Amino acid sequence: MNLATLIVAAIVVAVFLAIVISGIRKRKHGGSSCSCGGSCGSCGACGMTDDCHSKTNHVHK
Fold first, then answer.
1. Which of 33-40's residues contact partners 24+ apart within 8 Å by CB, and which partners?
2. How far apart are CA 15 and CA 7, in angstroms?
3. Burial of 58 (0-12, 13-18, 19+ CB in 10 A)
4. In whole angstroms, what is the distance from residue 33 CA to residue 25 CA?
5. Which tens digit of pLDDT belongs to each residue from 13-53?
6. Long-range contact pairs involving 37-43 (C-beta distance under 8 Å, separation at least 24)
7. Which residue blocks in 1-61 are alpha helix, DSSP H?
8. Going by C-beta distance under 8 Å and a sequence separation of 6 or more, which residues neighbour residue 40?
9. What is the dihedral of CA 40, 30, 25, 61, to 10 degrees?
């Protein structure tokens, strides 16, 4: 592998880790993975509706 490939791979790994860490911090502070923004009626066709809108997981802010 050359230097350019290593730099691009490092950037991709850094972005991936930032997303994962952000999600973990959000969950620790009471957030959820739901991205409906409080408008639950708009995500009825979403494949994650059952997981996102369970009583223990969904938080409206």
1. 33/57, 34/58, 34/59
2. 12
3. middle
4. 11
5. 999 999 999 988 888 887 666 665 555 565 666 666 666 65
6. none
7. 3-28, 49-52
8. 53, 58
9. 50
One-letter amino acid for residue 23 of the chain? G
- Name residue, tokens 């938080």: 59
Name the token pair of 39.
């408008």
Question: And the tokens for 60?
Answer: 């409206």
**How is residue 41 written in tokens?**
């009626």
Q: Is 52 exposed, middle or buried (0-12, 13-18, 19+ CB in 10 A)?
A: middle
What is the value of pTM for the model shown? 0.51
Task: Report in angstroms the alpha-carbon separations of 9 from 13, 17, 58.
Answer: 6, 12, 35
